[in-house]
Structures are given as structure tokens and as C-alpha cells.
Amino acid sequence: MKRTKIFVTVGSTYPLDRLIKESNKFDTKKFEIFAQIGESAFEPKNIKWTKFLDYDKLQEKIKWADVIISHAGIGTIIDCLSQKKQLILFPRLKKYGEAVDDHQIEICKAFEKKYNIKWPKNEKGLEKILKKDRQTHLKKRNLLVKEIKGTIL
What we know:
alpha/beta, 6 helices
């Protein structure tokens, strides 16, 4: 059985240990996981990882992956969707010191409403979404890509 390739990325600001710890629990018989963990204090034992990736290496990992699980950073969202990748968002939360405010929740809500991009309301819901959301919703995601290209070009 072919394992689903998952790229987990937390970006380059603030740690996001909750996401890394949860990803480390995934079934490695079903999933091949590579994580960019940033300044995480937690170093995973069950998955491959690195602290940081330069832009070209980040793009390579996005291309490699079947699914990307990412903090709700706009740059990463656009990179993933422009490559028509299945994306699951994981917002940084102020209450855990992961961000200065909860703007990533607003980003998640907006992308879920318009493009049906899923995000867990807590870390326990992440694997459930991963199992359920294998449909890529390409029609809506292609619409986003067209909107992005129309704005940029």
C-alpha cells in the first residue's frame, strides 16, 4: 500500500509545537511525513524533519507532498494552492503564545468558507480531517489560483 506523503510546515516565526507533536503521532505505516519545525522545542522521533527550509527547498517539499498541513500563513497557502495541493490549515493561537493575536483563525474561516479548506478546531481533530478530506476540491481551488494569477498579473 502506497503511503500518503505529508509535508508539515510551521513557517519561520514562532514555534508551533502543538502541530509538530500531533504530526509525530500519525501512523507512519499510512503516512510518510516530513516536517519543517522552525524553532520548535519539541524534536519529533517518528517523522523526518528539519528546522528551516529555504524557498527552493520549501517548493520542492510542496511538490513532493500529496497533502500539506500548514500554519495559516498566506504565503504558504498561496504556494500550496497554486500547485493544486490538498491543504489542511492549522492556525497559530495567541493563548499558547504561538502568535500575537488570533488572526490565523480568521484566515482559516475565510479560506474554509470560500474554498472549503479544512482546519481543526483543536489539535485532536487534525488526523480526523486528514482521513476525511482526501478530496482536493480542485474546482474551488482552481478558482483561487485564477484569482491569485489575475491579481498578480
